[in-house]
Structures are given as C-alpha cells and as structure tokens.
C-alpha cells in the first residue's frame, strides 16, 4: 500500500470522523416528491442493477426516445463496452425536440445570467425548449454549410454563453463530435488539442467577461491557428464587442451565418455507439488525452444520475444550478446533457463567484429561487474565507439540496456548507466521478442515505466499485488501496482519441479486467467510500485536474530551465497547490524576476490554472541512484513537514539539506 499512496495528512483526521447526518425529515415534501424513498429501496434496486444489468438499464433507457430499438443492452469484452447495441437515437432530440413534441416547447430550458456590467443590472436570458430547437437547427445547418459532416470534430472555445450550449447541441443534432476547450486555456493548449483531434473548425467568441475584463478568446484562437495548419474555419460569436483581427475566408461572424439559414434540420439518427464528444484531460504524462464518449449509454446514465442524485422533478418549480464551467466534464453532463432530458430548468452563469461582489452566488440563488445547487469544495472554502455575512444577506430558503464535486471535501467545509448555505435542512450529495466515467459513480442519494462529512458514501446503480490490491483482491475494512470499478457502466469512456495503447495501459493493465480509477480509497465499516487522493502523477488543483509532468514540460521549455519537478502541496483554498522545484542553466539568476517570468511562461504554455503557487530554485533535485526524482521528499519539503521518510536510496544527502534551507516565492 505505502508505495501506491501519496502522503496525505488529511487522511488521519477524517478517519476519526464520527458525525452522521440522517436524511432530513420533510425533504421529500419540500422538493416535490422523492424518487427513492428509503435506503432499503436503494439496496434492492442496487442489487438488481448488479445482478441483472440488462433488465435494469433496459427499463431506464425506455424512458427516453429511440429511433430504432437496441437488440442487446450490453456487450462487454474488456476493455470494450457496447451499450444498447443496434439502437439509434439522438441526444439533442432527447434534450430538446422530445420536450417540444410532448407539448413543453414553451417551458424554460436554460436560464442564463451574464456577468453584470458596471453599475447595470445583470443580463438574463431565458431559452425555452422551442428556442433551443430552432437555434440548434439553425446552427446545425450552419455547420453543415461549412462542410461539417457526421463524425467530424468541431472545437468549441467559448465563454459561458447560451450559444456554447447551442453549439454543443447542434453538433449532437447533426452527428458531429464536439471538443470543448475551457476558456482559461492558452493558445498553445488549443493548438495541441486541435492538432490531436485533427479538428478543422473552431467556434469561439470575440471575448468573454470575467471580473469586468475581457478574456481575448478570438486572439487566443488566432495565435493557436498560427501554431498548426489544421484550422480552416473559425466562427466567431460577438459577445463583448472587443476589437478582433480578421482573416478573410477563414473567419465568419456567427450572426452573419445564422441570419438567413433554415431552421429545418432533423436530428440525425446516431448509432448508440457513435461518438458524441471528446474532452481533453490531464494524465500522468505530459500530453493531455482526448477522452472519448459515445451516445446511447452516456445519454441514459447522465439522465438517470441527474434524476436521482439531484431529485429532479418537472413542473414543481425547481431551478437547478451547477456552477461549473462547461469546459469541464461536470458542465457537459450536469449543466446540459443529463439535466435537459429531465425537463427542469438549468441555470448557467458567466463570470466569477466574487464579481461584482463576494455574494454573487447568493444573489443569483435568491433572485432565481434556485432549488438544487451544485458546486466544488474549493469554492466552498473560498466562501468560508470571504465571511458568513455574504450568504446571510440573502434569502436562501428556496434551496432544497446541495451538491459538491471535483475533489475531496474537508469536513470543516462540509459543515459550513450544511449550516450556512443549507440551514441544516438540505441534504448534501458529495459526488465522486471523473472525466472518464462520464457521470457520477459514488454518492449519497438525497433524503435516503445517511451522510458523513468527507465521505462520498455509496455507489450508484450498476456501479461495482471496490477497493483492491494489485492482484484485484478486495481489501478489508478501512485499509486503503486502489479504487476500481469491476463492471462496465453505461457512461464509461470508450477510448482515448487516437491512442488505443494508452487507453489499455492507463485503465485496464494494472489490475486486469477492471477499470482503474487512479484514485486511492478505503471503505469503512458502513461500506462507505473515502477517497484518499490520486495514486498517479496527477494533482487536483482547485477541482481542476493537472498532470505534474505537464507543468514540468512547460517549465523546462523555458530557456533558463534545465530540470523541473512539480508536486502538490496543501493549499487553504485550492485544496492542492502547485510546488515547482527548478534547476537553472548557468548564467541565470535565481530571483524574483525569473520567478515572475516562469509564472508567465507556464500561463502561456498551459493557462493560469497551471501557475505554480511556489517556485524553489535549487542546484540539484533529490534523486535515487538510478536517477529517479524522489517526489515524496519534495512533497514533504513543499508541505513544510518532515516525516521520517526512508532516504536510504537517496544519491546525495546534501541536496535535501540545501533544499530545506532555500527560500521561495
Ligand atoms: C478526479 C477526477 C468529476 C468531475 C470533476 C473532476 C477527484 C472528483 C471527487 C469527490 C473526492 C473527487 C478524484 C478524481 N474527485 N470528485 N467527490 N471526492 N475526489 O473530474 O477532472 O476528471 O478529475 O477528481 O481524484 O479522480 P476530473
């Protein structure tokens, strides 16, 4: 065990967590009827879903529209899963057209709130299912007119505007595959992803609003397009009205293209296993990988988790808000694809949680009467720091359910969320999942599961999660090990774009036949799961996943740097911060000037989310005699702790002494 687990000081404290929170009485009435009424019902349904996955998932899939029925629910030949084999459907149809066809065209599908402009009131747009049907049809026709065919990969690099949702759904409508790139990524990151996906078309905005400033999205696309020969077409939505450069024949304004286009664009019949989207995420090598998701299984799984985990019920005045950016998988699955088929309005916002003021979120909750609220622990820790007066200024009584996602939540933050935001009456669903899993896999069901601060509790239906050793043997209670999923689930990734070998090696090689999550975990005497952090060189910074090697490559590409080692370190708000140890070429001064330059360089290479929180210059890195960097020692130094680590394999002891004494910024 010791070799596979990162040192994590937080583990000790949560091991002693004894507080239990039974499902709040009155939850079912407050939310408009609970879908699942008791833990016994959960257990019964869970057992059946494991014993008879075909029966279980077949019934659920029947709640959505299919053009042609499937012949087989599941074909599994590890590592390849095929769900709803032979069935055809369309996800845009199930999100949008199906609601219109059933007579709900006038209901609100998306509530959007823009970043408030100085002194003005926030801009709000409400789009009905009929609006979405029309706009996705128009943009679908635009894409076709630009030469996009079924299976082509369309890159979307936009801010949080309704047109991003429209563009995604339009791709799904015509059978194109989207690859959304988070608006905080740099030109270099766009170029890498466009190149890897061989994507010929990029949809972007002139700019996006963030804290009163314009993020120059179009400029970044221009710079990316200069780094690769792939980009042939750029569609630009006007959002901020900022000045942009223009390349004739390549660049087109969104509004010009949709102007005269027909709104007749039928939803393409997609095979259940046709690709739906690619989403790049960090792994343990320097190169992000394109995680591949397909249509039918992803649709059914995100629909059902949304329904049960957030207890979505249409026509009961619910307003659901997930604060994530659509550039991450959380936004794909739990702002758009899982929520729209449930016919509950989904809110999306542009900007930041602390602009124009630290109460932005609570102001939105109050004005829109949000009922379900889903956010990240890093945001909760920031709210705690900003002070209780901000939520207390607002009427948060509309809230019925709270959720968290992205990283382990520390019990203090859980308690604060429960008390200050949930008034001790809202169940908290701590949802564990990954870009690769497509949907939430381990979480409490609201009003059903007894919750414990810091534990994501129990697996969802059909999810055979276990904590095992390298031989795939289940470990005893409270012994940490590898978190694996032993059976396929409908929303699981189908591959890494263009890299079959990496797909097999990363997820299915270490424990043959099981999906390796890359997380360490333990299971307590209740059977609850406790996530203990990553077992690979991936760090989770403010809920965003980064490869330490990715940051190292960025640092080493700076002319002054010879070698760099990056590790995670405890950080009050981000959970994990980034610590970089850097050795320099002769003739470069280790000082604040260079430190600033390196920070800027990493921002250009990857994006601001990858900026190290600490850079320490050193003349050597601690290495084993075989030349491997001893990261565990660096983690200790970065954390300022000095545990009794085994240093017998260390090649040069003096390196450690000098590192401990060094100063940093
Ligand atoms: C990694 C996946 C899931 C969408 C956002 C992140 C960590 C995620 C939890 C949680 C403890 C969590 C894991 C996982 N993680 N949710 N509730 N408790 N850890 O997706 O970027 O693919 O990152 O985030 O370490 O492996 P991602």
SS-derived structural category: alpha/beta
Indicate the radius of gyration in whole angstroms.
24 Å
Strand order of the largest sheet: 12-11-8-6-7-14-15-23
Ligands (ions, cofactors included): 5'-O-[(S)-butoxy(hydroxy)phosphoryl]adenosine
Task: Work out the helicity level.
Answer: 25-40%
Low-confidence stretches: 1-13
Q: Categorize the overall geometry.
A: globular
| Mean residue pLDDT | 94
The total of helices stands at 21
- Number of DSSP E strands: 30
The CA-CA distance between the termini, in Å, is 34 Å
Indicate the proportion of strand residues.
15-25%
Characterize the main sheet.
8 strands, mixed
Would you give an account of this structure?
The chain has 665 residues and is an alpha/beta fold. The chain is built from 21 helices and 30 strands. It has an 8-stranded mixed sheet, with helices on both faces. The chain has a 7-stranded mixed sheet with strand order 5-4-17-16-18-19-20, with helices on both faces. It binds 5'-O-[(S)-butoxy(hydroxy)phosphoryl]adenosine. 5'-O-[(S)-butoxy(hydroxy)phosphoryl]adenosine binds next to helix 12, strand 20, strand 24 and strand 25. Residues 281, 328-330, 405-408, 430-435, 456, 517-519, 531, 534, 540, 545 line the site of 5'-O-[(S)-butoxy(hydroxy)phosphoryl]adenosine (WT7).
């Amino acid at each position: 065990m010791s070799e596979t687990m990162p040192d994590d000081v937080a583990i000790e404290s949560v091991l002693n967590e004894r507080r239990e929170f039974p499902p709040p009485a009155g939850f079912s009435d407050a939310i408009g009827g609970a879908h699942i009424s008791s833990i016994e019902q959960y257990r019964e349904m869970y057992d059946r879903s494991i014993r008879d996955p075909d029966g279980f998932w077949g019934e659920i899939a029947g709640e959505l529209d299919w053009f042609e029925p499937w012949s087989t629910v599941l074909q599994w030949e590890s590592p390849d899963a095929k769900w709803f084999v032979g069935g055809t459907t369309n996800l845009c149809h199930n999100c949008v057209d199906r609601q219109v066809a059933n007579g709900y065209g006038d209901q609100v599908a998306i509530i959007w709130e823009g970043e408030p402009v100085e002194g003005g009131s926030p801009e709000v747009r409400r789009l009905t299912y009929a609006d979405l049907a029309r706009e996705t049809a128009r943009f679908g026709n635009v894409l076709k007119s630009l030469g996009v065919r079924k299976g082509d990969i369309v890159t979307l690099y936009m801010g949080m505007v309704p047109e991003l949702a429209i563009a995604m759904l339009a791709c799904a409508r015509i059978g194109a595959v989207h690859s959304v790139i988070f608006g905080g990524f740099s030109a270099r990151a766009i170029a890498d992803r466009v190149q890897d996906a061989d994507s010929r078309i990029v949809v972007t905005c002139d700019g996006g609003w963030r804290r009163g400033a314009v993020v120059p999205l179009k400029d970044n696309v221009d710079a990316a397009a200069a780094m690769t020969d792939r980009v042939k077409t750029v569609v630009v939505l006007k959002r901020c009205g900022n000045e942009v450069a223009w390349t004739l024949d390549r660049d087109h304004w969104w509004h010009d293209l949709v102007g005269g286009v027909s709104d007749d664009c039928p939803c393409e019949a997609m095979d259940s296993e046709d690709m739906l989207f690619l989403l790049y995420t960090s792994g343990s090598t320097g190169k992000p990988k394109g995680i591949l998701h397909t249509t039918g299984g992803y649709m059914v799984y995100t629909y059902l988790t949304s329904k049960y985990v957030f207890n979505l019920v249409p026509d009961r005045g619910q307003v659901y808000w997930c604060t994530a950016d659509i550039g991450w998988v959380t936004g794909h699955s739990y702002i758009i694809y899982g929520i729209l088929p449930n016919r509950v309005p989904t809110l999306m916002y542009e900007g930041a949680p602390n602009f124009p003021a630290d109460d932005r979120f609570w102001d939105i909750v109050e004005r829109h009467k949000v009922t379900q609220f889903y956010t990240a622990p890093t945001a909760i820790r920031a709210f705690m720091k900003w002070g209780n007066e901000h939520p207390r200024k607002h009427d948060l009584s509309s809230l019925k359910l709270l959720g968290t996602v992205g990283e382990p939540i520390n019990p203090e933050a859980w308690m604060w969320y429960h008390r200050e935001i949930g008034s001790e009456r809202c169940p908290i669903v701590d949802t564990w999942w990954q870009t690769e899993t497509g949907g939430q896999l381990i979480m409490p069901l609201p009003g059903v599961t007894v919750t414990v601060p810091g534990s994501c509790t129990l697996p969802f239906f059909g999810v055979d999660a276990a904590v095992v050793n390298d031989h795939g043997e289940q470990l005893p209670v409270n012994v940490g090990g590898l978190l694996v999923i032993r059976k396929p689930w409908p929303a699981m990734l189908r591959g890494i774009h263009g890299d079959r070998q990496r797909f097999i090696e990363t997820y299915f090689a270490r424990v043959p036949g099981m999906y390796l999550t890359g997380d360490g975990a333990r299971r307590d005497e209740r059977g609850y799961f406790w996530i203990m952090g990553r077992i690979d060189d991936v760090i989770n910074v403010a809920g965003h996943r980064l490869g330490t090697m990715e940051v190292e490559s960025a640092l080493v590409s700076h002319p002054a740097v010879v070698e760099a080692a990056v590790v995670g370190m405890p950080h009050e708000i981000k959970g994990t911060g980034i610590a970089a140890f850097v050795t320099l070429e002769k003739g470069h001064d280790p000082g604040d000037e260079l430190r600033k330059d390196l920070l800027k360089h990493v921002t250009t290479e990857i994006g601001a989310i990858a900026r190290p929180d600490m850079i320490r210059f050193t003349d050597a890195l601690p290495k084993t005699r075989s030349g491997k960097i001893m990261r565990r020692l660096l983690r200790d130094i970065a954390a300022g702790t000095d545990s009794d680590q085994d240093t017998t394999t260390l090649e040069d002891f003096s390196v450690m002494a000098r590192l401990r004494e060094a100063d940093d910024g």
